Amino acid sequence: MNKTELIKKVATANEISLKQAAGVVDSVLNAVVDAVAAGDKVSLIGFGTFEKKHRDARVGRNPATGEAMEFAASETPVFKAGKAFKDKVNG
Q: Strands 74-81 and 48-55, how do they pair?
């Protein structure tokens, strides 16, 4: 499912226009992105948790040449599925 399909599904389920559904979906996604970027944890009970994790600097290897490469420290978004989500997928 892509974003357009999600918007159509939200519009149908809530009997609203596609434009209204697009606004709702965009608002939710932007709120999650903004919160995680600011370092907050976003927990949606039954769905999962979005948060920012720190990755330390490390040394890796270029697979083509075998030459050592340095990777800088970085921040990355992480999602952990909630129990209800996992149960639905596995079940």
A: antiparallel
**CA–CA dist 62, 72 (Å, integer):** 15
- Write down the pLDDT at residue 44: 96
Rounded to an integer, what distance in angstroms lies between the CA atom of residue 57 and that of residue 86? 32
pTM of the entire structure? 0.81
- Taking CA atoms, 80 is separated from 1, 38, 53, 61, 86, in Å, by 19, 18, 12, 29, 10
Rg (CA), the chain: 19
- All structural domains of the chain: 3-90 (4.10.520.10)
Rounded Cα distance, 41 and 58, in Å: 25
